[in-house]
Amino acid sequence: xDSEALKKYxxxxxxxxxxxxxxxxxxxxxxxxxxxxxxxxxxxxxxxRSKAVASTIGxxxxxxxxxxxxxxxxxxxxxxEMLHPSWEEYATQLANAEENELQQTIxxxxxxxxxxxxxxxxxxxxxxxxxxxxxxxxxxIDGIFVxxxxxxxxxxxxxxxxxxxxxxxxxxxQYGKATLEGxxxxxxxxxxxxxxxSSSSGESQKHLKIDCANGIGALKLSEMEPYFPKEMLIxxxxxxxKGKLNHLCGADFVKVHQKPPRGLDMKPNERCCSxxxxxxxxxxxxxxxxxxxxxIDGDKIATLISIFLKELLAKVGQTLKMAVVQTAxxxxxxxxxxxxxxxxxxxxxxxxxxxxxxKAQEFDVGVYFEANGHGTVLFSKAAETKIRExxxxxxxxxxxxxxxxxxxxxxxxxxTVGDAVSDMLVIEAILALKSLTVQQWDAVYTDLPNRxxxxxxxxxxxxxxxxxxxxxxxxxxxxxxxxALVKKYKLSRAFVRPSGTEDVVRIYAEADTQNRIAEAxxxxxxxxx
Length: 529
Ligand code: NG1
Known about the structure:
41% of the residues lie in helices and 19% in strands. By secondary structure, it is α/β, with parallel strands linked by helices.
């Protein structure tokens, strides 16, 4: 390490005095103007991580669904997963080190994590469309450069595209080509093959309106459109040419407010969806003939995919273990439907994709979705090998066709992380193959009315939780108060937890009617503030 160069470059990216940040559920996230030093230092960390695991590491500059003024950064591990938890602490230490401690902090990390400083390092960089992202990704590059790492800057990409590139690179192309064309070709080929097997025709079936949250999704969908089969008709809204990123639109807005985004003209019964700002989440919805808005969230997406996969697995006659992974925010109706009607085991884990991803890896087929529309499906290596073998060699026509569909699903799904583009194509293919309308999909079960609120408290860390965040252990008495409230309502459930991405406490409640929810979510009483 050239300590003079480190000092010089670091002084170009000074840390604001007294500022401390934490690598949370989604990396670092805060106001963009506070992040320059963090970006530089994450460039440094990516080089160290790359040397430690002798693989390419990804860095994505984005604050996903947060307001345009925010920004953030997260590291992507070799197979496209989130950064290993043991390194989150190093990230926090490096981001918070004072200027004069920087070199020492790097040395300590290298010792603790057994980093061989003489190894080569390779980093892939991507960024979203925020006005601050370009400059911040330059700061990342400075960090990589000063420690002598090689890098490839993909420029504007969706977060899941960057995860995909990293995985392709580290699997020597087995997962696909580490280029945008490679991504578009792989997904569109699998999608085209899948819908060839569908009997449904007619334009309306494949016509979809997409709210792109004024983010990267619009740009990437436009690039991908020429690869789509001609039956797939998409119309893009909130494409970033006029509105502000994530402002009154996008998947998070639609889910939280349970209303349509601004700027999308919705006709009765038309199928619509929203991406979030970096296109890793997707939410569907429609308006019925009476003007009533219907939200189809991540739980219903997980359910649709599970129904489809379960049928195919039954057809191929393999005893592959399938499960669904959810968080505490999953609507109670979805859990009941999956467990009692579909008879698929459901597991609940802590909020944050890394927890869901990790749990889903335990099964042959692990479907995971957060209610907010972030999710994907993981296939074990053994399951994938078996399915590909059956798709090629199985003599029984029906079984072989089912195996082929599964094989195309494997190729269509971005298994590295939740991906709005890939999930959208999966959903569109399933709806076409099962000849389902959006209304029929919605009617699979009825959501329990629910509310999700956030409140600011003096110190959100006073709340500590257990049981996959469904019960509060501190402050004393809080859980008892929630229990007493919940007891008064039918089919009710409520919990409180500190956010991992914002300085707020989130409150969730569901019950059999909307009025009871309004009563139950009296924030002062529930939060004891
Ligand atoms: P926090 O802020 O910890 O609730 C939010 C989302 C998560 C996840 C992360 C990362 C909710 C209730 N929480 O986490 O599901 O997506 O952001 O983006 O939507």
